[in-house]
């Protein structure tokens, strides 16, 4: 919304009338400034929902005249990528060998045990860890003021709590102990920089023998791929998309359903795990033949 408003202010001398920005020509000029097809589709999807709501509520109108401009078309070549289990195993092993190995090991398992985003991990504070409910509280995408609970696996929770005891045990009596950042380079005063985590994983990817040179060169795998891996393994285990939506804290189910397209071959295996999948048609005709 901020980017759209900024674009509007650059093309009008004063605040424009709402209907003046709802033209095919103006919306096209805004979307054409975006090179990446997937990003352009996300912006178009946002504008479709926003303009549809405003036009309907305040103007008793619809978006039919501008709908053709606001196309939502995903470039499948740029669909999100996930790590294979073999690659994950190697990354975890490599993380234990380098500098800050304990921290890096816990960071990887926090990602894999929660599916949280990079920004959410970096801003995680000691008081956000809730062992009683098996939650960690994070600032979700687009929410600066509030924190929402995110479930965490038992193994990752234990690693995280032990790491906090190891790193901050001597500071437990501080009045602001719960406000200290779990991953920090200055005793919890400020959060670790996102680029530090990105560089850490990038180095591990470079060292990996199970990741192809092509994937390394074009940087198709990243920190966010750990979130995709989290979702993939849930789907592979037979967890339904609606539950995965809640665990990933997606506002829209459509954001979760992208994994159905990404891992179609995996879904074929899942459907054949259905208790009725192993039945054979010939079994029903044995009695008839007798």
UniProtKB/TrEMBL annotation:
InterPro entries (alphabetical): DNA_brk_join_enz, Integrase-like_cat_sf, Integrase_catalytic, Tyrosine_recombinase_XerCD
Record-level Gene Ontology MF annotations: DNA binding
Superkingdom field: Bacteria
One GO process term, biological-process aspect: DNA recombination
Keywords of the record: DNA recombination
Pfam families listed in its UniProt record: Phage_integrase
Residues in coiled coil: none
Keyword Transferase in record: no
Tyr recombinase domain sequence ranges: 78-272
Protein name: Tyr recombinase domain-containing protein
Source organism (scientific name): Paenibacillus donghaensis
Lineage of producing organism: Bacteria, Bacillati, Bacillota, Bacilli, Bacillales
């Amino acid at each position: 919304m901020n980017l759209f408003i900024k674009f509007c202010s650059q093309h009008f001398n004063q605040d424009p009338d709402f209907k003046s920005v709802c033209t095919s020509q103006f919306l096209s000029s805004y979307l054409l400034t975006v090179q990446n097809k997937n990003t352009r589709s996300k912006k178009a999807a946002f504008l479709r929902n926003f303009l549809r709501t405003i036009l309907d509520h305040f103007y008793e109108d619809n978006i039919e005249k501008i709908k053709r401009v606001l196309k939502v078309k995903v470039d499948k070549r740029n669909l999100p990528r996930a790590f294979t289990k073999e690659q994950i195993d190697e990354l975890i092993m490599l993380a234990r060998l380098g500098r800050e190995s304990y921290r890096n090991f816990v960071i990887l398992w926090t990602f894999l045990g929660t599916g949280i985003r990079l920004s959410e991990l970096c801003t995680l504070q000691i008081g956000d860890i809730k062992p009683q409910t098996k939650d960690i509280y994070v600032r979700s995408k687009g929410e600066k003021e509030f924190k929402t609970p995110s479930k965490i696996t038992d193994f990752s929770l234990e690693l995280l709590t032990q790491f906090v005891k190891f790193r901050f045990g001597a500071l437990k009596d501080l009045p602001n102990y719960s406000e200290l950042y779990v991953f920090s380079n200055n005793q919890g005063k400020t959060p670790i920089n996102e680029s530090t985590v990105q560089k850490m994983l990038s180095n591990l990817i470079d060292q990996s023998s199970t990741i192809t040179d092509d994937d390394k060169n074009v940087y198709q795998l990243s920190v966010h791929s750990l979130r995709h891996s989290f979702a993939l393994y849930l789907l592979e285990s037979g967890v339904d998309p609606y539950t995965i939506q809640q665990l990933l804290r997606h506002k829209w189910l459509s954001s979760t359903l992208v994994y159905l397209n990404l891992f179609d071959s995996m879904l074929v295996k899942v459907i054949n795990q259905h208790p009725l999948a192993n039945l054979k048609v010939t079994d029903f005709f044995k009695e008839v033949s007798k």
